[in-house]
Structures
1.
Amino acid sequence: MKFGGLVWRSIRSRRSSLLSFAVFVFWSFIAFLPSVFPNQFEVDVHLPLTRLPPSFHLSVPSGWMGYDAVGSSILLQIVNGASVSLVVGSATVLVSMAIGVPLGAVAGYFGGWVDLLVGRVMDILLAFPPLVLPLAIAVFFGGGFSTVVFALCVGGWIGSAKIVRSQFRTLKNSDFVMAAKAAGASPARVMFRHLLPNVASPLLVHATFSMAGAILAEAGLSFLGLGLGDGHISWGGLLNDARSYLIESPHMAIFPALSILSLVLALNDLGESFRIALDPRQSDLTQGD
């Protein structure tokens, strides 16, 4: 069975995975709405509506989640924040893997001082608690999309590098690799044409979990006021805005928190589904979950 078909079969075989997939598709669809219909999803300030609670009138959907401290619709901000979370999460994963995969491949294939150097760099970065480096970078360089993605990628590449490095160490002496070398294949061709496809499965699992972690980390930075800054609506920023009104207007925090929770849980569950699909030893144990 093809790789994509195997993954899809695993998603279908687990009820929780179907729900998680639906949640991810829902947020992906929501994220595109502000770009397709910018006027309908523009966030305005209406001071007379300041901190009004949710109102479920069909004629006024902007009030379904209530309003914030300046009278802006929380629903519209949730919609706009979805695109920020998904873009930051996707960009972080792509950039991290663009760094980690080649480094891990070179270290695992060639070994020696290259492997030692890459390993030491990873050990140094892993010595820091997960959010310390992103916080330090965000404080030093200030907010902004590029800064946040860079801050999250500083340590984000290590996971993919460790996976590729470990797999290449195991596979580089396999028969198919020796056959490729005997046929005159260059080291680059052996690494990226023959070895890398065998690492696609664990990389997919890692990418899914990493995206969830990046979304959560971006929300944390934004909550601390070190996120994307002015001009960008972030779910973490909405939680930051709601800190002073948790008692009087809890809806200001509840809906952004539920948005973060639903997307992160969905991605984590999808990552677990991919892991089960690509690890035959797990399939029988989790059938029907």
2.
Amino acid sequence: MTLLSEVFNYDFSQHPVDEPLSDEILASMTGLRGFLDRVIELSGTSNPSVNDFITSSGRGTLREFPVFTGTPAQVADQMESWFHADACDGFVLAATHMPGAYEDFVNLVVPELQRRGLFRDDYVDGTLRDNLGFIRP
């Protein structure tokens, strides 16, 4: 529910899961508008319920994206395999639990990726704006 609420910038936990959400509630969601339109289309109703959001979006479910699991070395193996097979040029991480998922990844998997030369262990000076050559407004 947290991940779903994050995408739509709306607290879904205040509603029963099978209660249709009003037009007013849907209009108050300030998150991804295209994602909202997709949920409405896939659910087949102009006033989807929280359950419709979960089912239609897949957000926060194991079917949303491929899941790499195992020890830090096993997760790094899977990421390395995808990277070297040109299946991707990077990864977007989604928390599997809160709090602590991102900290676990940084503290356990990143060092393994660094040992393999797949993740930087040093950063260039300056801000992203500076490194891209943009002038400060």
3.
Amino acid sequence: MQKVVLATGNAGKVRELASLLSDFGLDIVAQTDLGVDSAEETGLTFIE
């Protein structure tokens, strides 16, 4: 099973995406499950 790490600590998002992708045999985990800190988001847009 291939592991996909989501750049989120939101358990609800992880559950929702895991459910949506369940047919693909992926192990969906949050970055916080692996001890990865959240990135500092200082920009006002996605480009920044």
4.
Amino acid sequence: MDNEADAVVQRCLELSEELCRRQEATPELKAAWEQLWRDTLAGERLAHSAIRHACMVLSLGASIAVAEGDYARSVELLRSYFAHPDIENAQCECRASLGCNLADSLLHLGEEAEALALYRQVLNSDNKPCAAKALAFAREFVRDFCLEQEATAVASPALTGFVAEVAERSAPGVAGQLPPAASYGQLAQTLSEAGG
């Protein structure tokens, strides 16, 4: 890795740590990411960038967007990652993580059918370690989504069915008592139990 590539990785790590520490996207953090974006991926640069750098920079940008509640921006950034010409050579963990992040953002935008289809696509990867990582990400993201909803509100049968699938893959038998359309509280509890 050359010095410029090292600098991109280091800057992404620094900004990610700051976002985790602050638990919010400060104007300074957002400006620093936007400068990193302009310097590394903006315009035609994305198509010629290393897929690893695209993963790091776009993941950070999507995390900042989510911290601001801008799920549409998160979707835009993450879709550009999956349009990268070298996506087939991306690291398993990046593909699983960003695929689940994209599905989570779609779910928050009310695009449930598309979100669940994407989750299933990532979970059904032929790469077993990648599918296992995706299962852990999906379980966490969907549980957190359910916890953000009114606990007694009834989730759709489609989401309930997906939670049952994830729970069954994670810990067989855990989802056995879910009704066809469970409450968000029941879904969150099921996913928590399935996660160990």
